[in-house]
What we know:
Cofactor: a divalent metal cation
Bound molecules: 2-succinylbenzoate, magnesium ion
InterPro entries: Enolase-like_C_sf, Enolase-like_N, Enolase_C-like, Mandelate_racemase_C, Mandelate_racemase_N_dom, OSBS/NAAAR
Oligomer: single chain
Organism: Actinocorallia longicatena
EC number: 4.2.1.113
Enzyme class: lyase
Strand order of the largest sheet: 5-6-7-8-9-10-11
Radius of gyration: 19 Å
Strand content: 15-25%
Amino acid sequence: xxxxxxxxxxxxxxxxxxxxxxxxxxxxxxxxxxxxxxxxxxxxxxxxxxxxxxxxxxxxxxxxxxxxxxxxxxxxxxxxxxxxxxxxxxxxxxxxxxxxxxxxxxxxxxxxxxxxxxxxxxxxxxxxxxxxxxxxxxxxxxxxxxxxxxxxxxxxxxxxxxxxxxxxxxxxxxxxxxxxxxxxxxxxxxxxxxxxxxxxxxxxxxxxxxxxxxxxxxxxxxxxxxxxxxxxxxxxxxxxxxxxxxxxxxxxxxxxxxxxxxxxxxxxxxxxxxxxxxxxxxxxxxxxxxxxxxxxxxxxxxxxxxxxxxxxxxxxxxxxxxxxxxxxxxxxxxxxxxxxxxxxxxxxxxxxxxxxxxxxxxx
Length: 363
Ligand code: OSB
Ligand code: MG
């Protein structure tokens, strides 16, 4: 496949409700959409970097710069060759993933193969979980959780931080004794909080996600010895090599896989394979994706090792109007798109209405 060029689109989508985590509050999703044009084929990718470098070092404007200056000149028509060509560029996994996913979409569309078939999906639909942000009060949280449970979500994840942990988790657990429930701290604690975090042990949580800073593998291993809730890593897992290391050291009983965090779907699949080999369950994380990123995530979540529900929620959990046909919850599940490539295309009317800037860069 010969690359003709790429189109970058900066779009802004209002979230249906503000989303607060331990690292900040989001009311809009600023999203960079990549379109690869090659031999008459085209492919779409979504960059999951946020507006600010608060979840990880990447941010939208930085990712766009890296894509233009360092990735486009290395882009080839072959997904594996491109991955190797990107490797000398240190870091920037979200920028790499956006471009390599768009390339993979074009490559698969040309072959009439879906993301799911290509990755090794074993299911036609995947269990959907939902990530619930930090709220102003416990009653407000309970209302939000009740509504998601009524919609059919198969598990709930509560964002936590110091000052918003025991009380909200206890309240949700009392109201929903059998609900699959987990927490996500986005690095907000230190090992000195171990005794405090152990107070959540009686709540029967599926896991606690990324309680400590991303570079603290040893700390997570020590914390895992001091609490009974399984420790799951998100931010720390940036490659299959680190996944193997964290698992071997006892720092990760569960792994959250996000293609954008690890440089793309090829590495995401390797992490899945490493975890399966170690008997470690995985689930698909989310970064408030539009339908473009969601389509690929849902296909990934259909791999055999994804035995826990992911943060792959319906479009309506995020956006009043998604960039693609909406992903809809049916009996608490989302359907894996079956068509070639992503199996979805952006609705150009919605995309144009949300686009604030477009740039075409010939190869
Ligand atoms: O840590 O999993 C996270 C959203 C943005 C950045 C980081 C995270 C999240 C979520 C929401 O938890 C997942 C989603 O529903 O897309
Ligand atoms: Mg997380």
